[in-house]
Design goal:
The protein contains 16 helices and 18 strands. The chain is an alpha/beta fold and about 400 residues long. It folds into two domains: about 260 residues, Aldolase class I (TIM Barrel, Alpha-Beta Barrel), CATH 3.20.20; about 80 residues, Arc Repressor Mutant, subunit A (Orthogonal Bundle), CATH 1.10.10.920. The strands form four sheets. Strands 9-10-8-7-6-5-4-1-11 form a nine-stranded mixed sheet, with helices on both faces. Strands 12-13-14-18 form a four-stranded antiparallel sheet, with no helix packed on it. Strand 9 and strand 10 form a beta hairpin. The protein is globular and about 60 Å long. Bound molecules: iron/sulfur cluster. Iron/sulfur cluster (SF4) binds next to loops.
C-alpha cells in the first residue's frame, strides 16, 4: 500500500494554487496550529493502522501545502509513529516536498536524510524572477539554487525539481534556456507542469478579466515538444505526460497512482482509494481535527463500480510511457479496446501518435502532446459504450465498513 500525508500549511498562498493549505501565521498561533495538526495526524495514523490491520507500506509521500514547514522534531515523531503502527518496507520510498524558502535552515536537509527521507521534491517552479513574482512564490531564484545545493550537501541523493511552463511572457527560447540551467544542476527527476489555473485559484479571475495572456497554442505545443525532446537527449526518460526521470529514478509513489494501486491519504483534504472504495478527508483543518479526534470514519465513501474503474484505467495508464494493458480492459469489460476505438486508433497510429507493443497501447511523444484531446475523446466514447452495456450505476454508501474502536483517542 502507499501512504500520502497532506501537510496543510504554507508560508503564503501562491496565485495559481488550488490545493488545500493555509498560510501559517508567524508566532504563537502558528505554533498552536502546527501542534494541533501534529496531534491530529498522529492520532489518524494510529486509527487507520488499526482499521487496516497494520498493512505494509511501499511508499510514503509527504505533500501539501509545504511539508518543509514542519520542524524536524515533528517529522521525527510522525515517522516514528508510522514505523510503529505500519510495516514500513525495507527500501520504501519516502518522498518529501520542500519549498526553497523553508529548506534553507541550517542542517534541515541533512536531518531529513537522517530520518530516512530518501527523495526530495523541490518546488522550484521557475528560475526567472519575473515569473516567480507572477506565480506569487515566496522565494527567489537565488534561494531556489541555494536550497538545491543545501539538499545535495545534506546527503539527499534523489531530487526532483518541479517546474511550471506556459507562463505569461514565456517563449520557447526562455523555456529551453531554463531547462538547460536546470539540467546542469543534475537532478534525478523533473516534473514539468503546464500552468493550469483551476477554479478557486487566485489568478483565475485575473485571467478571465484579461489582465494577462498565456502563450498561444502553437507556442505551448512547441514548448512541450522541444522541451521533452531536449530532456530526452539530456538523458531523461519521458515516462509520464509531465514527468522525466534518469534511469532508475521514476517516482514509485506517483507510478502507483497511475497504475491503480491502493493508497491511504492522511491529513485534511487527502483522498484514499482502497479496493473498490474511495473517500476524502474534510478539506478544512478544523473539521478534519474534529473528526479525527472523535475517531470517526470519513463522511462519505464512493464505491468505484466497473464503469469508473474502466475510465480510470484508460485515463491513468495512457498518461504513462508503458500505456494501457489491453488485457486489463478486456478483463473489466469483456470487450476489445482496439475494436471499440478502431477509427481513432488507426488514425493516431498512422500519424505516429500511438504504438501497440507486447499487449500494451501507449501514446508516443507526439500523442502526449495532444493527450488532452485524445483522452477526452476516449472518455466520452467509452462512457457511451459502458452505458450501453447497462452497467450498475455508481453507488454512494454511508462510509467504509472500517470501524475503529469507539473510544479511540490516539493522542500522544
Ligand atoms: S503551490 Fe505549493 S507553496 Fe504555493 S500555496 Fe500551493 S501548496 Fe502552498
Amino acid at each position: 500500500m502507499q501512504l500520502y500525508i497532506h501537510v496543510p500549511f504554507c508560508r503564503s498562498r501562491c496565485g495559481y494554487c488550488s490545493f488545500y493549505s493555509r498560510a501559517l501565521p508567524p508566532g504563537g498561533y502558528g505554533v498552536e496550529l502546527l501542534r494541533n495538526y501534529l496531534n491530529g495526524l498522529l492520532a489518524e495514523i494510529s486509527l487507520w493502522a488499526g482499521r487496516l490491520g497494520r498493512p505494509r507500506l511501499e511508499t510514503v509521500f509527504f505533500g501539501g501545502g509545504t511539508p518543509s514547514i514542519l520542524p524536524v522534531a515533528s517529522l521525527e515523531l510522525i515517522l516514528k509513529r508510522l514505523r510503529k503502527e505500519f510495516r514500513l518496507e525495507k527500501g520504501a520510498e519516502i518522498s518529501f516536498e520542500g519549498n526553497p524558502e523553508s529548506m534553507l535552515q541550517l542542517g534541515y536537509a541533512a536531518d531529513l536524510a537522517a530520518l530516512g527521507v530518501n527523495r526530495l521534491s523541490l518546488g522550484l517552479q521557475s528560475l526567472n524572477e519575473d515569473m516567480l513574482r507572477f506565480l506569487g512564490r515566496p522565494h527567489t531564484r537565488r534561494e531556489a539554487l541555494a536550497a538545491y545545493e543545501a539538499a545535495r550537501m545534506g546527503g539527499i541523493a534523489n531530487i526532483n525539481l518541479d517546474l511550471i511552463w506556459g507562463l505569461p511572457g514565456q517563449r520557447l527560447r526562455l523555456w529551453l534556456d531554463e531547462l538547460k540551467t536546470v539540467v546542469s544542476l543534475k537532478p534525478e527527476h523533473l516534473s514539468c507542469y503546464n500552468l493550469s489555473l483551476e477554479e478557486g485559484s487566485p489568478l483565475r479571475p485575473a485571467l478571465e478579466r484579461g489582465d494577462f495572456e498565456l502563450p498561444g497554442d502553437k507556442e505551448q505545443s512547441s514548448m512541450y515538444a522541444y522541451g521533452s525532446e531536449y530532456l530526452e537527449t539530456a538523458g531523461f526518460l519521458h515516462y509520464e505526460i509531465s514527468n522525466y526521470a534518469r534511469m532508475g529514478f521514476k517516482c514509485r509513489h506517483n507510478l502507483g497512482y497511475w497504475e491503480g494501486r491502493d493508497y491511504l491519504g492522511l491529513g485534511p483534504s487527502a483522498v484514499s482509494t482502497i479496493g473498490d472504495k474511495r473517500w476524502s478527508n474534510p478539506r478544512d483543518l478544523d473539521a478534519w481535527l474534529n473528526r479525527t479526534a472523535r475517531g470517526l470514519p470519513p463522511p462519505e465513501c464512493e464505491i468505484l463500480d466497473r464503469n469508473v474503474r474502466v475510465l480510470e484505467l484508460i485515463m491513468l495508464r495512457l498518461r504513462t510511457d508503458r500505456g494501457l494493458r489491453l488485457q486489463a480492459y478486456r478483463k473489466l469489460t469483456g470487450r476489445d479496446f482496439i475494436a471499440d476505438n478502431k477509427e481513432l486508433i488507426h488514425g493516431l497510429h498512422r500519424k505516429g501518435m500511438l504504438r501497440i507493443k507486447n499487449g500494451y497501447l501507449s501514446l508516443t511523444a507526439a500523442g502526449m502532446l495532444v493527450s488532452n484531446s485524445i483522452l477526452e475523446y476516449l472518455f466520452t466514447s467509452t462512457r457511451e459504450k459502458l452505458a450501453a452495456l447497462s452497467a450498475p450505476e455508481r453507488e454512494q454508501s454511508e462510509g467504509p465498513a472500517l470501524e475503529g474502536p469507539s473510544d479511540f483517542q490516539g493522542r500522544p
